[in-house]
Amino acid sequence: MRLPALPKRYHAASIWALYALGLLPAAWTFYLGATGQLVGNPVKIFEHLLGEWALRFLILTLLISPIRDIFGINWVRYRRALGLLAFWYVAMHFLAYMILDKRLALDVIAEDIFKRWFITIGMAAFVVLIPLALTSNRWSIRKLGAGWVRLHRLIYPIAAAGALHYCLSVKVIGPEQLIYAGIIAVLIGWRLVRPRFMARKRGRRPQYGKLATEIPRAD
Ligand code: HEM
Prior knowledge:
- The protein is mostly helical.
- The protein is built from nine helices and no strands.
- Helix 1 (11-34) packs parallel to helix 3 (79-101), helix 2 packs antiparallel against helix 3 and helix 2 packs parallel to helix 9 (175-202).
- Residues 44, 47-48, 51-52, 54-55, 90, 93-94, 97, 113, 119, 122-123, 125-126, 129, 158, 162, 165-166, 169 line the site of protoporphyrin IX containing FE.
- The site of protoporphyrin IX containing FE has 23 residues, from helix 2, helix 3, helix 5 and helix 8.
């Protein structure tokens, strides 16, 4: 069964709608925080919600490719928006940690980054995510060519680091951490078996390292 295709004239509007929809959880979290509705430890809850949304958007970004490969549904036009939303949620999570949690005490923050493993891993993921966000535009795709694809494959280790960061941030790993880590592990596993799957689907030999088909349109 095929989903009806969205007419091309609505593509741009649907992408903007996704940005607006994607920022709603942040707006809602800010609203709850500002109106004192985050009960218990508001700063921690605030940090927690933004961190979880960052992971969700990372997962949605990684899902676009298998959805196209397995079901033939092409939502590649939404991948950039989902990746950028993941970046903005990580940035907000980081700012909540720096400003609300640590009150900009740079010595404490530096000590955390260098001494607490889960924060070191989260920070590394954030730092690597920055060039991906900066090159998520048509000009960079044109300029970097196949290098752009190699750079953007870093989204897989970033998601793995995000999941590891989540697991290590808690004293006891529970079902929530396992679900996120499990989904990300499956998506990384999919990336590894994808060349074989695609080769079988097309009835050809696997074409490892063939990048051209993956470069998004720069026009
Ligand atoms: C890809 C990057 C990142 C992702 C996906 C991510 C996601 C998450 C998630 C889902 C949690 C669990 C929230 C909880 O249960 O409390 C968390 C916790 C935490 N994250 Fe991140 N994070 C990232 C980067 C960072 C960075 C850059 C920092 C700061 C340098 C940071 C600081 C923290 C802290 C301090 C906690 C624990 C909060 C607590 O004590 O409950 N994270 N993160």
